[in-house]
Amino acid sequence: MSKIQLKAVNVSKTFKKKIIFSNVNLEIYEGDSIAILGRNGKGKTLLLNILAGSQEPDKGYIELFNNDPQHPWDHIGYLEQQGKRVNNIKVKDFLAVVQLTLLTKEAQENYQDLIELLAIENIFNTKIASLSGGEKQKLAILQLFLNKPKIIFLDELYNNLDYFIRENLVKYILEYKEKYNATLLFVSHHKEEILRLATRIWLLEDSSIKVNTNDIEGFFKEDNKNNIFI
Fold first, then answer.
1. Is residue 25 within a helix (H) or strand (E), and if so which, with residue range?
2. pTM for the whole structure
3. What is the CATH number of the domain that holds 111?
4. What SS3 class is residue 65?
């Protein structure tokens, strides 16, 4: 039986006096790949923030790995829409510091694979402040996977990335999940990304998870009625 990796217990959150979700209870298992869907303003990113530990719920709590290991939040990787990064240095100088943390041959090989996959060598001499949104996204993705997270949170992975990078990245994520039995939760407006990565869909509506299904293709059938959520 798969292990519970993350549990949300009676989680509630309001924003500007509006109830975003109320008494949400969720169990996420090792190896799950869950797409969080919903109309704009329904709290998809807010829920992801709370599950990833970057925001506190008003009520309830999040439990990771059944409170084991000792520092559970160290095993979380979160790709946010607006990442924070030092801006006044060149990419190559930033990466030189990153490389100091790569203590194993496997980590060094993974670094080289990601540099090539994300075409980061093309921006080595550019200051981070001058990077485009897509280029900053690539750096954030690199950092995320170098940390070998057990649970991966992605908020709009495809943002500002070209088709070639998207294709290679999806393949990398699927291989990573299989190799490490990692758990994935993501918010996306891209049907293709959802169909390729998700094994389960949560539909956030009316302050709760209205749909919790592993029938991904069925969710989008019936005259594409659910495409309004993408």
1. strand 18-29
2. 0.91
3. 3.40.50.300
4. helix
